[in-house]
Amino acid sequence: MIAMLVAVVLAVGLALATSSFHYATLRWLSGGMARIALQPGRRVLCIVFVVLLAHVGEVVLYAAAYGFSSRVLDLGRFGGLAVERPLDFLYFSIVTYTSLGLGDVFPGGHLRFIAGVEALNSLLLIAWSGSFIYLAMGRLWPWQRCAEPADRRAGDRRSRKGDQE
């Protein structure tokens, strides 16, 4: 019962920590980054790169929590391929974060709950990032005006001429 409660508190804490970190990152990108002089196209690239780095940081936080949870808190073990080194925890975390779920490594015990929360939390964070980048591109991306077909331009002139009469 105590292990389950620890897993729930840890999972909720991780979700709050990663969401807060993501909020702070996007907040900085929308405000603080404005002080850096960049061309619009390069600003979009920087936004994408910083958002990617934020996701990598969140994956690392979950990976550290898996290592701590399995080795220190004894909340469960991993099945499948051996999970012994930090890179193994990182691999499992990124597969879970991206909802790829290869199945070659799988959590047991209360680690399953933490993995489920990571997948749900990351789904929201990835969607949040996508919508943020979409809005940033809408404001910053230098779109070229498209050429209109000749017959449409002629039709527009005729209708404007009719409106003036």
UniProtKB/TrEMBL annotation:
Please state every residue range assigned to the domain named Potassium channel. 69-129
A Pfam family this protein belongs to? Answer: Ion_trans_2
Residue ranges spanning the membrane: these are 44-68, 113-135
The UniProt entry, under InterPro entries, shows: K_chnl_dom
| Domain of life of the native organism | Bacteria
Q: Which UniProt keywords apply?
A: Membrane, Transmembrane, Transmembrane helix
Report the protein name in the record.
Ion channel
Species of origin reads: Tistlia consotensis USBA 355
The record lists the lineage as: Bacteria, Pseudomonadati, Pseudomonadota, Alphaproteobacteria, Rhodospirillales
